[in-house]
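ok trying again, last paste got cut off:
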Amino acid sequence: MTKQFRIGSFALGLVAAIVVAGCSNSGGTDTGTSGDAKGGEAKGGKKPLVVFSQANSQDPWRKVFDADTQAAADTHKADFEFEKQDAGGDPAKQNNIVDTFMVKKPAVLLISPTEDSVQSTVDKAFDAGVPVIILDRNLKSDKFTVYIGGDNVEIGRQAGEFVADKLKGKGVVLMIQGIAQIGPTRDRRGGFMEIMKKNPGIKVIEGDDCGYQRQKGRAYMETFLQKGEHIDCVYAHNDEMAIGARLAYDSWAKTKPAGSAKDPLFVGIDACQTEVIDMIKAGKLDATFKYPTPGAKGVEIAAEILKGNKPKDKKIILPTVKVTKDTADQYLKDNPNLAK
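nice, full thing came through this time. structure:
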């Protein structure tokens, strides 16, 4: 072997060693790698991965939800990586999102379910040993680590008590409903009807499911008003549908005869928008009930799980607040980060 050939072979070997070393070090910047739920760094010195599957990010309440969640996650950048995906209200898409997350071996999964049909995917994640934090919409299985959200049954009860008091136990209520396949709709209906059963002088018309959307609530109200049925109150399962119903009523009211019956009550749920509070102050809506966003608390619990601190309670219920014309100004002061 010539001297020149020996030098060339040595140089090639040195380059190969450098390339191999470079490849082995590059994994430290991969944000898709998870850690275990016991806290600390994952294998290879990478931070644990916390993932969040949001049901949808379109309506005002969920935009506040997302902002609160991200803000909380930003305070833990040194502790874990955070990824979020929006399912756009599509359960099939959410199933795919969770399956993709699972390939990355997350340390904790946060999920706000689109509907009950994602149950099997959530069960599979839990069975794989991933701590699961359910946010907002509960599921029927007990395969989760902790549920965090408002008490929709209690909110429904409080709405029912407000309506029964204002109507003095007599009248007709049109209930505009959300999405039949999810817990909040069933609970907001159930809590309200629980109070209505104690007030037999109040008749409840169970309206259509309007998907928690303003335009669907407005379209339904426009169709309903054409029937000419008398109502004393509209109870909508969220503020967006309450606003839609009010807009439809205001348009219809321009054509009603002078001296007609007074406007019905309009009651919603969420209290996450300045628009809603302004409408209450203007007398266009009569009340709303705060449905607290659970994301920040979810991130806080995820951080504790990574430290090895399992939640003491299986369910964490966040409190509600009633907002009326008398309390609207104070509510705005107490909640400066409402959606517009």
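cool. Residues 11 and 17 are 10 Å apart (CA to CA). Residues 1-41 have pLDDT under 50 and may be disordered.
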